[in-house]
Amino acid sequence: MALYVKKFGGSSVATPEKMRNIARRILSERQPGDQIVIVVSAMGDSTDDLLALASQVTKDHFGREMDMLLTTGEQVSIALMALTFQAMGVPAISLTAAQAGIIAEGAFSKADIVDVRPDRVFRELDAGKIVIVAGFQGVTSEGDVVTLGRGGSDTTAVALAGAMKADMCEIFTDVDGVYSADPRYVPDAVKIDEITNEEMLEMARLGAGVMQPKSVEMGMRYHIPIHVRSTFTKEAGTIIREETTMNHTQFAVRGVAQDAHIAKIAVLGVPNVPGMAYSVFNALAENHVSVDMIVQSIRSADTDKTDIIFTIDNNDLDEAKKVLEALKQEGGVPDVIYSDDKAKVSIVGAGMLGAPGIAARMFGALGRSGVNIDIISTSEISISCLIPRTDLTKAVQAIHKEFFGSEQA
Amino acid sequence: MALYVKKFGGSSVATPEKMRNIARRILSERQPGDQIVIVVSAMGDSTDDLLALASQVTKDHFGREMDMLLTTGEQVSIALMALTFQAMGVPAISLTAAQAGIIAEGAFSKADIVDVRPDRVFRELDAGKIVIVAGFQGVTSEGDVVTLGRGGSDTTAVALAGAMKADMCEIFTDVDGVYSADPRYVPDAVKIDEITNEEMLEMARLGAGVMQPKSVEMGMRYHIPIHVRSTFTKEAGTIIREETTMNHTQFAVRGVAQDAHIAKIAVLGVPNVPGMAYSVFNALAENHVSVDMIVQSIRSADTDKTDIIFTIDNNDLDEAKKVLEALKQEGGVPDVIYSDDKAKVSIVGAGMLGAPGIAARMFGALGRSGVNIDIISTSEISISCLIPRTDLTKAVQAIHKEFFGSEQA
After folding, report:
1. Which among A150, A181, A228, B139 counts the fewest CB atoms within 10 Å?
2. Closest residue in A to B84 (Cα–Cα)
3. Which helix (H) or strand (E) holds A230?
4. Which of residues 242-271 of B touch A (CB under 8 A)?
């Protein structure tokens, strides 16, 4: 007897037939006494259809009225899902975010859940019903409906699981878990059975998709294990949970992540006086350009000049150029070199700190593959290398083989 | 400076282009200081689309989850309507029934508005916004969304106008008002400028469409004038208001109504003892068959026998047959004759009581046209005649000519 929150995304509920499949699966896996809360997104392309409708009246796709419009998508899903269970003779009820007590605040289209008051959810569960809650939405203290932004339905599920002290939050998706590397780069990547919230956050930050950081952070805050698994198979996926439950020495490196869209910017010959780095990075920040890796080195031959080298997302390169060329005009920086052909490969693992030689093994694997390392950066649970984009696949495969080779047998 | 509640039905908001037309019209007619609340239904066929979707998961089209599903239709309309105004640079906000304080109770799919708490509506109006409210829906004290049944958006508009003490509730529709007769029967029927709530209710009861009785009753209860007018022209339509404002002697007969779907049932030779009529009508009532006109006559040649003759809606005839044949089997009634080829023609006017000779003029018009009268029934403000269905058009035209002939010149 346990309390489960199960989240199904838009592609999992795209048609009435898919909804029936989900309902059958849930009923077949339910143990006597289990209480089930289901969080669903809008059906398949329905959000795109609503956006297309909105495009006929306005070019502005954000704000209160867009949220009012888009949240109908989840409301359709929850109603149909409840009707699906009822048609099978199983008591079920759908609840909007307002009815389920999902309280949110912040800007429309990207609000944050600030409180969950699941009284009604408990009451309906206690009445023996399967409860279906609209994902991706919240209600403000004024009673306005807001959407939660990308990955919002995952956040709904984890927040609800947290507030209800559920035994498990299951995120059903079209992949069957988190992998030791992106299978598009490493076909023999292995599914990770367990990963800590910190590792998952670091993987996401370093380029691994699957879960949005917001949901993972929420799972960490509420101490709720999150099971990421496939809608289409019954096999276990990846469980994201607090680190204390796992054996680290066995998995010093949890996974390999990569980001193919990195640009490198070198600001050369900057006067080595206080505040120079600040002026560069402040100008970028004011224009919403996020900087990732940073290296600053004093030229050995010319100690009053310094080079500042850093990386940004390739998509931000045009904006960064504008900012830096303006600085150059003002005489703030002497010369800038832009490279838009970089990539980043990283290893992540909470156990790396206690396992010496990990970094050396990573650099060795890259070296033997003939991959030059441009910049190295480290965090407590990760090591990242900037490399040429053309070497990315080779690099990911070499590193994965170094750390996971034995598991491929 | 006035407060208006304006309701637009599904066909009026069927496309973004039609929404723009409505917005342009409202803005062009708005006087400085006017406050505008708009009530809209779901766009065109969108309710049918949702029903088709529901049909794929269930055959049961009533209940909480169907209401959850269908109310998304109005939510889409209000959001798009608000976006339409915003795109024109006009502040506007959409409100669901819950946000607008439309409190309802009763069965799902046909709930009744029991209270309106328009605090938020007033607040948004005072902030200079046009407020767009979802029609056809209400919220229960438990926070459930319910629909109001047929004509529900009209009811929303009138209830809101009543609670807000609006100066006028305008119902925009695809006809340009209430007519002295159904134009399908009488092509030269004239638009009625003003009609009392009682007359309108009687017209509706006797077969004239246009407005659902629930909305008219609500207008009467809240003393709110209702202006039924065309979405497509700027001409005034028909104002439904309390009778004291109008001159009755001029319009003893306000209009002609007809109902083409009447069945007549004659229960013959019933023993003339107390309780016989009760046993017949009670059995029908228990099976939800509503009886309209009733005549009971004692046979002159056989004073211990009586004939009970009455009319019902043609659609209820099969059910009535079942009930009465069962009574016959039990020996409760000796013989029953069913006729499914009747129609009813009526005249309605609150001034008829004070204008003698009205009934005689009606019967005369029918007689000159060769229409036999089967049953006559009267109320304080109407006279109805049961006639053969094949004579209905002739009858409606003759009566209309008798009372409105002079206006056709």
Report:
1. A150
2. A57
3. strand A226-230
4. none
Residues in chain A with CB shorter than 8 Å from the CB of B53 are 16, 76, 80
Mean pLDDT of A268-282: 84
Interchain contact, B79 vs A57, CB within 8 Å: no
Band (pLDDT 50/70/90 cuts) for residue A409 is very low
Mean of pLDDT values over B196-206: 90
Q: How far away is chain B from the Cα of A157, in angstroms, using its nearest Cα?
A: 20
Amino acid at B227: H
Q: B13-64 pLDDT, tens per residue?
A: 999 999 999 999 999 999 999 999 999 999 998 999 999 999 999 887 789 9
Smallest Cα distance from A96 to chain B, Å: 9
**Residue B408's pLDDT is what?**
41
- Per the CB < 8 A criterion, the answer to whether A164 and A37 are in contact is yes
Spatial contact of A178 and A191, defined as CB atoms under 8 Å apart: yes
Distance CA B315, CA A340 (A): 76
Mean local confidence (pLDDT), A29-50: 94
Does B72 touch chain A if contact means CB atoms closer than 8 Å? yes
B83 → closest Cβ in A20, A54, A92: A54
Query: What mean pLDDT comes out for the span B297-322?
Result: 86
B167 touches chain A (CB under 8 A): no
pLDDT higher for A340 or B204?
A340
Structure tokens at B154: 């009209």
Angstrom distance (rounded) from CA A398 to CA A364: 10
The beta-strand segments (E) located in A245-354 are: 255-271, 291-298, 305-313, 335-348
* C-alpha to C-alpha distance for B338 and B315, rounded to whole angstroms: 13
User: How near does any CA of chain A get to the CA of B117, in Å?
Assistant: 14
Residue B247 has pLDDT above 60, yes or no: no
Of A59, A80, A92, the CB nearest to B69: A80
Q: Which residue, A69, A50, A161, is CA-closest to A108?
A: A69
CA angle, A8 as apex, A4 and A11 as ends, to 5°?
Answer: 170
Does the beta carbon of A79 lie under 8 angstroms from any beta carbon of chain B? yes
Chain A residues close to B79, C-beta within 8 Å: 54, 65-66, 68-69, 72
pLDDT in tens, A88-143: 999 999 999 999 999 999 889 889 999 999 999 999 999 999 999 999 999 999 99
pTM: 0.83
* DSSP label of B352: G
Query: Residues with Cβ < 8 Å from B96, sequence gap 6 or more?
Result: A68, A145, B71, B74, B75, B78, B134, B137, B139, B145
* pLDDT(B300) > 80: no
Nearest to B94 among A20, A68, A87 (CB): A68
- What is the reported pLDDT for A35? 97
Integer CA distances (angstroms), B112 to B138, B158, B159, B223, in order: 8, 13, 10, 19
**ipTM attached to this prediction:** 0.82
Determine the residue type at A191. K
Tokens of A119: 């009284």
CB contact under 8 A, A57 and B87: yes
Angle made by CA atoms A309, A312, A313, in degrees to the nearest 5: 155
A255: left (phi over 0), alpha (psi -120 to 50) or beta: beta
The structure tokens 């004070």 sit at B354
Asked whether the beta carbons of A346 and A258 are under 8 A apart, the reply is yes
